[in-house]
Amino acid sequence: MLTIKNLHAKVGEKAILNGIDLKVNAGEVHAIMGPNGSGKSTLASVLAGREDFEVTNGEVDFLGKNLLELDPEDRAREGIFMAFQYPVEIPGVSTINFMKTALNQIREYRGQQALDAVSFLQLMKEKMKLVEINQSLLSRSLNEGFSGGEKKRNEIFQMAMLEPKLAILDETDSGLDIDALRIVANGVNKLRNKNNATIVVTHYQRLLDYIVPDYVHVLYNGKIVKSGSKELALELEAKGYDWIKKEVAVA
Amino acid sequence: MSLKLKAMTGLKKKLLLPDMSTTTTRNINNEIVEAFHQSKFDVAKEYRNKALAFFEKTGLPAVKQEEYRFTPIAKSLEKNFDWSVIQSKSAIESIEEFLIPNLDANILVFVNGKYSESHSTIISPESEVKIKTLNAAFKTDSEVFAPYFDKILNPESDPFAAMNSALWQDGLLIHVPANTHVSKPIFILHLNDAGNSQVISQTKILGILEKGSQLSVIEKFDSRGTHSVFHNFSEEWIVKEKSHLEYCKVQNDAGKSYQVANTIIHQSDNSLLNTFTLTLNGELVRNNLNIIIDGENCESHFYGLYLLNGNTLGDNHTVVDHKKPNSFSNEMYKGIMDGNSKGVFNGKIFVRPHAQKTNAFQSNRNILVSDSATVNTKPQLEIWADDVKCSHGCTSGQLDEEALFYLRSRGIAEPIAKAMLLYAFASEVLTPIKNETLKSYLDNLIAERLQKNF
Lengths: 251, 454
Ligand SMILES: Nc1ncnc2c1ncn2[C@@H]1O[C@H](COP(=O)(O)OP(=O)(O)O)[C@@H](O)[C@H]1O
Ligand SMILES: [Mg+2]
Fold this sequence. Notes:
- The complex is a heterodimer of chains A (251) and B (454).
- With 251 residues, chain A is of the alpha/beta class.
- In chain A, 41% of the residues lie in helices and 28% in strands.
- Chain B is of the alpha/beta class and 454 residues long.
- Bound molecules: adenosine-5'-diphosphate (ADP) and magnesium ion.
- Adenosine-5'-diphosphate binds next to β2 and α1 of chain A.
């Protein structure tokens, strides 16, 4: 589904991604872990198409298309979804209107008819249940005055509405208490199937108890320095990141 | 961001009186004075002569004049108008397209500065509101307006006010008796038709809301035709104790229209005021909106929105003058500038020494959507009382890139995402408008301008 080869990116003069290789197949869950500042959010943002970052080398293939050539909106329409680490507050735009517009834009791109009001409402009700979010929150200005947990749940709600092929969750667990974490993870798990894939960015293993990954990668200094099975996450939890840093220094 | 301001004693300022030391090179001022002498006025000769004498002294504001620094209107008038031209008649037959659909209101229409009886319809009974042309009122109702006429809006406060007081063609007296709620709004259409030749209109309104009365006024400015239009408009609103005025102004002129509007609203104890000013079009629009809070426990909300494009210059100069204690004012103006347009905002807040416990809030936020659009924004707070709460904030910048990326990352095309953000930004100012028909009309105007078609 997604093949990243030798991806380099910088912001201004600062190189942040220094040659990332990653292959994600349909049906898989990949976890990307790593210390703060290692480039996890940058990788997620580059995949989603944020223009602050300049790709200086490498390629990204998504379902046979050159992802890097696409505008952010076309990436979303092709099936990419990033849950933001810091969801943006947008006064005056309700989540409901936002989702109605987004969904219909995506449908139009795919040659489908716009959803009528009744079907949209039905779909929304169904997805609201999935992430245990209530309608009054969704009628309010997008993320404005939402608690940290509400923002994250809203991200997963949007993901549920748009049904992406590849979801990239950037620290969706940070700032969540254990109940919220369970709700969010539950939502993600229910949306999983053999045709879609998930990249979970986190620096705690805690989330991976709920969303069990097929692969775990460690990102450090803009490179994937170690990959393994879900046991790697447990090892990181027990030993911290220092041993990885040492290994990198030695190599 | 609310701050308590310490007393600024010892400050003595000449208030409300701009520096009048002005001249312009071509003698457009002489032309205007000459036009006065060529006109035949039936009424208000004393008022007119007095105002003219003042205008003769000052003339139009020169380029360097602080109050008109960003708005070179004298130059525009020089370039585009010939004051000796006799105006041709308007060819407009139907005013349908200029009305607000489905608005159940009294309709008062001015065409090229003259009141048009045939286009006007008054539906409110005279027991609710007396509406007369100024020319008529001068002959019959002088005791009603004499205490206010040219007194609240002092012709010497502004050169355009002086010009208007000297040269007004016609206008309205709107008088609401005590304890009366006018159930239907008053819709005033100022239409200028420059299809055949240039138009210079000078009109004037005096509105008086007696104690405990209530009125909603909607003023709409339209023009058409390829020649230039200059509309110099003045109005005074007297809002007495426990009265309530809803005031909405829509400036949607097409073509080469130049407009100066001097609006002054005087509030007494326990009165309530809501104003909303929407500026969309025209070559140049200058609004001087002055709110005099001359009473306790007053509440004033004044909102404005300017959505400018092309070469439009939209200039809002507002003053709120707290003269008495315990009142509240809240001002919110927003602007979106596209094309080569220029926005200007100047917001003065005065809190006089006795006006303790005043709450005065002001915000002006601007978005520039093109590289060649500009905005100049300036708050001016002059506070002489020590126990007040005042806050102000001015911002100008581009659309929020983070927000734009967020919307796009969900599959929304860039132009639509922009329109969504701009519309969300702009439509906030519609919140206080209560008349649903009016609100949805304004909402459509805004959506259309911002190409919000989702
Ligand atoms: N817009 C930016 N401008 C400058 N530096 C940035 C920007 N975004 C990220 N960085 C820097 O890039 C590095 C990686 O950041 P990030 O991808 O957010 O790391 P992580 O998500 O792994 O904590 C950090 O050193 C961060 O300061
Ligand atoms: Mg991060």
